[in-house]
Amino acid sequence: MPLFKSCPAEFLSQLEDQWSHWRDAADEELAAKTEVLLKDESLQLAVARSFVGSDFLYQQCCRQPQLLMDLLQSADLGLETIAVDSIGDEQALDRRLRQVRNRATAEVIWRDFAGQWDIPRVCLRLTELAELCIQVALDWHHRQLVARYGEPRDGDGNAQSLVVLGMGKLGARELNLSSDIDLIFAYPEPGETDGDQSIENQKFFQRLGQRLIKSLDAMTAEGFVFRVDMRLRPYGDSGPLVSHFAALEDYYQTQGREWERFAMVKARPVAGDGAVADELMELLRPFTYRRYIDFSAIDALREMKALIQRQVRARGLSDNIKLGRGGIREVEFIAQAFQLIRGGREPALRERNLLKLLPLLEQDGHLQAGAAAQLSAAYLLLRRVEHALQAERDQQTQTLPSEDERRQKLAFALGRDSWEQLHAELAEARAAIESEFDAVIAPPEEIAEPSAAEEWQGLWLSSADDASAETNLHTLEQAGYAPAREALDLLADLRAAPMVAALPTAARERLDQTMPLLLAAASLEREPLLALTRVLPLVRSVLRRSAYLVLINENPPVLSQLLRLCSASPWIAEQLARHPILLDELLDSRRLLAPSSAADIADELRREMLRVDPDDLEAQMEALRHFKQSQSLRTAAQEVSGVLPLMKVSDALTWLAEAILQQSLQLAWVQVVEKYGLPAGASAEDMRFAIIAYGKLGGLELGHGSDLDIVFVHDADPQQNTDGATSIDNLRFYTRLAQRLIHILQTRTLSGPLYEVDTRLRPSGNSGLLVTSTSAFEKYQRESAWTWEHQALVRARPVAGSARLCADFEQLRLQLLCEARDEKKLREEVVAMRDKMRAHLDKSNDKNFDLKHGPGGIVDIEFMVQYAALAWAQKAPSIVRYTDNIRILESLTDAGLMPAYQAEHLIDAYKAYRSEGHRLALQQLPGVVNGDQFTAERKTVLTNWQQLLG
Q: What value does the mean pLDDT of the chain take?
C-alpha cells in the first residue's frame, strides 16, 4: 500500500522518489515517527502538495530532516531569534541569517500548500522575517563600524542612527516568497563620528548601508536572504546610497516625480530608531498626500500602466499575473489612485495594506457596493498563485507555466482538480479586476463615446483672435449663447489673461482640455451664457491648482452638476469659487442629493474630527469650516434640485449648526480645562454649561448665511474654583470657555469664519455678563426683562452642552412662558415694538414689498405667534412646547385657541414668504419683491393681525 494514497498517479513516482531521498537523509527513528504521523491522510496530502509543488521545500527538508517532523507536529514554528552578541564574525552573521530565512520560507510554503495559513498570514510572516534580518544585520554592522570610527553624531553631539524605509510590499506588510525588498536609507543630520579615526556621518552610513545590503543580498552556499533593490532612492542608481533627512525632504518637494509618490504610499520604517523614523515620515507626508483632491494622480498612473503594457506586449508577458491585464498591479493601481487623490483629505485611506484598504474605499463610496469583496477575492487568488509559482524553485516569477506538467503540478499544489479549473478561476478573477481598473483608471476616451467638446476646441483656442471672431460668434449664437459677443469676450479675456500665459505647460494643457468640455456642457443648459458667466470665476480660482481641472475633465457628471448648480444659484457659484475643495462634493450625485438626518450630520462631523490631529487647533478649525461648507453646499444643491422642501432645508441647516456648536464647544472645553483645570462640581460628562439658541436657530428656521443668536448659561457655584495649577473661579472659567467658543466660531481662517455670533439677547444685552447662571437668568426674566425679551424666549431652546442643564433650562423656559400676563398690556407692548421695528427696518414702498418687515409679512406672523404664546400659555402650556412658528400655530389649533382655517392661512403665508426668501438668498438678492406679489397672503395676515392685536 503506497504511503501517499491521495497523490495523483502522474506525480506518485516523483513523490516516492523524493520520499526515499528524505528517508535517506533522516535517521531511522525520525523516519519511523514521521511515517506514523502520516497515517493521517490530510497530512499525507499536505506533504504531497508541498513536495510536488516546491523543490525548495523538499530540498530544505532533506538538508534538515527534522524540519518536516516539526512542520507536521506544530501549527506555527515561530521566527527564530538571533542574538547579535553571539555572532563572532561577518561569515557567522551571514550564515545565521540564511538559516533563519530558509527555515521560515520553507514553513510558509508548507502552511500555504497544506491550507493552514491564508495569504495575509503568509505575507505577514515573510515581512516579519525581513524586518528581523534587516534589524539584526543593521545592529551588527553598526557595532563594527562604531568600534572602528566612533559613534556618528550631529552638531549638538546627539548620536545618529540609520533609518531603513521599507517600500512596496515590505512597507505594506505584503511581502511575497521570492520578492526583492525595496529600501531607502536615511539618517537625521550631517556631522561626524566621535572616534579616533573620525569620518563624516555620510561616509559612515554609506558604509553601513553597503554592508547591510551585502549581508542580505550576497549569494553564499546557504543561498541569499533577500535581494535588495535601492533604485527607489532619490536619483535612483546615480544618487547617493544614503541621504540625511533635510536632503530627502528637499528632493521630494522640489524634484519628486509622480511615480515616487506612488512608491511613498507604502513606505514604512522597518529598522532603526522609531522616534527618529516617525520624524522622517512626517517630513515626507506632504509630498505623498496633497491637502486637496488630486485627480492628477490618475494621469501618472495611466502613464505607468501604459509603459508596463508596452513591456508586456514587447516581452510576451500576457501570462504574467502581476503585470498583465487584470493582474496584481492593476488592483494596486486602483487602490493607489484613490489614496493619492483623496489621502490628503481622508487619513484613513493612508492604510498601506491593500486588503485593509479596499473595504475602506467601498465604505466611503469610492468603490461600488460589492467591489471590495470581489477585488479582494481576485487579488488573494492571484497572490496565492504567485506564491506557488515562486515556491517551485525559490525564484522571482509571476508568469504562468507553459509546460503541461508544471501546470498540473501548480494546480495540484493549490488544491485544484486540474489546470483547467485553476485557469478558469484565474480568467474570472482577472476579468473582474480588468473591469474595475477600466472604470477607475482607463482614459475616458477608451471607455466613452467621442465628446461633443471636440467641436469647441478650435473656438477656445482662437477665442482671442480677431480673425476668427465672426466664425466664433456664429458658433456661439447657434449654441444658444446670447448675446454671443458677451460670451466670446469672456473667453477672450480668460485666454489672454496674464495668469493663463504664466501657467506651466501641464496646467495650460489641463485648461485647454477643460474649456471645450465646459462650453459643450454649458450649451446644454437653459441659459448657456449665465452658466458660463457663473462658472468662469471658479475656473480662474483653480488655475494655479490645476488638479481641480483634472477632476472636472475626469468626471463629466461633475461638470454637468457644476453648471446646473451654478446656473441655479450665484451663492453656490461663489462658494465653489471661494472654496474649490468643495468640488469633491459633486463627485457622487447620490451622496450630494441624499438628505441627512440630524444624527447623520452629527455622526459624520464626529468622524471627520477623528481624522484630525487632536493637538492641532488650526487643523480642527479648518476641518469644522470645510464640513460646514460641504454640508451647506449639499443642502443648497438639494434645495435648488427640488429634493428638499423649505422646512427640510431649514431643518438641515439648523442640525448642521447644532452639530458644529457641540463639536466647537468640546474643543473649547478641552483647551480651557487644559489651562485652568475642571471647575468645581463639573466633569467632562456634565460641564454644567449650555448654549441656548434664540431667533432663527432657536426656531429651527436657519437660512443660508444666517447668524447665530446664542446665550450661554451655567449652574456651577460661582464662588468655587477650578482644580488646575492655574486656578480661577468658576464664573471666570465659564466666561473664558464662552470666549474661546466664540473665537473658534468667528475667527477668519483661510476658509473664513464658521458663523457670525450674536450674544446680545443675553440678560441686560451687551452690558450684561457673557455667561449667566440659571438662577440669575430666571431672576432677570421674572423681574427685569422687557416684553420683547419674553417674545424672544418663545423661540429659545438649548442646543449644546450639558444634557442635564439643557433639560433644566427647558423646564425653566416653560415656567417663565406660562406666567400669568395682562393681555391688554401685553397687546399694547407687542404692537408698540412692531411699529418701532417697522419704522426702522421696513424696506417696502409703493412698488416693492419687504418679505420680512413689510405690512402683512414674516415679522407680523411671528409677532402674532409670540403674542398668542405669551397670552395663553398659562391655560394651555402645550402651545409653548415647541419653538418654531408653524408647530406653535398647529398647537394653538389643537388647544382650541385658534380656528384651524386661521392657523392654516398663516402657515401657508409664512411658508410662501420663507420659500421666496430662501430662493432670493440663493440668488444673492435682497428679501424684497415686486409690490403686486403675495397680495392674498398679505391681506390674510393683516386681517388676522386686526382680529388678534387690533
A: 90
Q: Is the pLDDT of residue 404 over 50?
A: yes
Asked: is 823-949 a CATH 1.10.3720.10 domain? The reply is: no
Question: Which residue in this structure is represented by grid cell 523538499?
Answer: 58
Q: Cell 447644532, residue?
A: 658
Assign a CATH topology to domain 454-592.
Answer: Four Helix Bundle (Hemerythrin (Met), subunit A) (1.20.120)
**Measured CA angle at 398 (ends 119, 264), to 5 deg:** 70
> 3-state secondary structure string, 523-587?
CCCCCHHHHHHHHHHHHHHCHHHCHHHHHHHHCHHHHHHHHHHHHHCHHHHHHHHHCHHHHHHHC
- pLDDT, one tens digit per residue, over 236-283 is 888 999 999 999 999 998 888 877 888 898 999 999 988 899 999 999
Residue 182 has pLDDT above 70, yes or no: yes
Q: Which of 884, 879, 845 is nearest to 861 (CA)?
A: 884
Which CATH number, 3.40.50.300, 1.10.238.10, 3.40.50.2000, 3.30.460.10, labels domain 75-288?
3.30.460.10
Place of cell 505584503: 174
Identify the CATH homologous superfamily for domain 296-442.
Nucleotidyltransferases  domain 2 (1.20.120.330)
- Residue extents of the structural domains in the chain: 75-288, 296-442, 454-592, 642-817, 823-949
Can you read off the three cell numbers belonging to residue 673? 480645562
Q: Which CATH architecture has domain 642-817?
A: 2-Layer Sandwich (3.30)
Beta strands in 136-254 (DSSP E): 152-153, 163-166, 181-187, 192-193, 228-229, 242-244
Three cell numbers, residue 202: 555620510
DSSP string covering 927-943: SEEETTSSHHHHHHHHH
830-873, pLDDT tens digit by residue? 999 999 999 999 999 989 999 999 999 999 999 999 999 999 99
Q: Which residue has the cell 538538508?
A: 63
| 240 backbone dihedrals φ, ψ, rounded to 5° | -65, 145
Which residue type, as a one-letter code, is found at position 191?
A: G
- Is residue 453 scored above 70 in pLDDT? no
The C-alpha cell of 138 is what? Answer: 543593521
- Exposed, middle or buried by CB within 10 Å (0-12, 13-18, 19+), for 634? buried
Give the contacts of 484 (CB within 8 A, at least 6 positions apart): 473, 474, 476, 477
C-alpha Rg value of the chain to the nearest Å: 36
- Quick one: DSSP state of residue 79? P
Q: What is the pTM of this model?
A: 0.67
Element (H, E) at 138: helix 119-149
Q: How far is CA 469 from the centre of its chain?
A: 46
Q: 762 by DSSP, 3-state: which?
A: coil
The conformation of residue 641, written as its DSSP 8-state character, comes to T
Position 662, amino acid: Q
Sign of the torsion angle spanned by Cα atoms 557, 560, 564, 569: positive
| Equal fold, 296-442 vs 823-949 | yes
More confident residue, 511 or 451: 511
